[in-house]
Amino acid sequence: MRNKYEIRGDVTTIFIDKIDGSRLEVLIDTADFELVGSVPMKWTVNGSQNKRRRNLYATGRTYVIGEKRKFLQMHRLIMNAKPGYDIDHINHNTLDNRRCNLRAVPVGKNIQNRKQATRKSQTGIRGVYPVKNTPGVYVADCRVGGKTIYLGRFTDIKVAEKAVIEARAKYLPYSEEALKASS
């Protein structure tokens, strides 16, 4: 392991120094330390970070003379990800690579666990939209398998939000709402 690290019982923290001098902490289970440490490279971060979203992933690069560089994401290594599957960070913290926070989901299903409404949302609530030319009225819907399920029109935005949360828990098994409903 070329990174500094600290073993704290069942959890190991791997330190990643950024170019700007700041330091990030990546969490893994201590049981996975040997696997992660066996990779002959320094772990870095790759991804994007802005006001709304932080998608930074612990990434390593391998290089063999005469071959292309290969990128390896720590969470995929830990979960031994198979083709056709994404690794979902359940709590949305992409630097928390403990097994209790990771799960393999079919490609395309990972979007079910998206944390917030899109940037263009007029209400800030996923699946709730204002009705044009009708102030104070909202439409609620939920997208499942490429189809939109209409949930109704509401005059109370909180009731519309509740309808969307219930629909997501029912129809989207990898969503945060489904996780909460099953606990």
Question: What can you see in these coordinates?
Answer:
The chain has 183 residues and is α+β, with helices and mostly antiparallel strands. The protein folds into 2 domains: 103 residues, no CATH class; 71 residues, 2-Layer Sandwich (GCC-box Binding Domain), CATH 3.30.730. It is 18% helix and 36% strand. It has 4 helices and 11 strands. The strands form 4 sheets. The chain has a 3-stranded antiparallel beta sheet, with no helix packed on it. Strands 4-5-6 form a 3-stranded antiparallel beta sheet. Strand 9 and strand 10 form a beta hairpin. It is elongated. The two termini are 37 Å apart. This is HNH nuclease domain-containing protein. InterPro entries: His-Me_finger_sf, HNH_nuc. It comes from Ruminiclostridium hungatei.
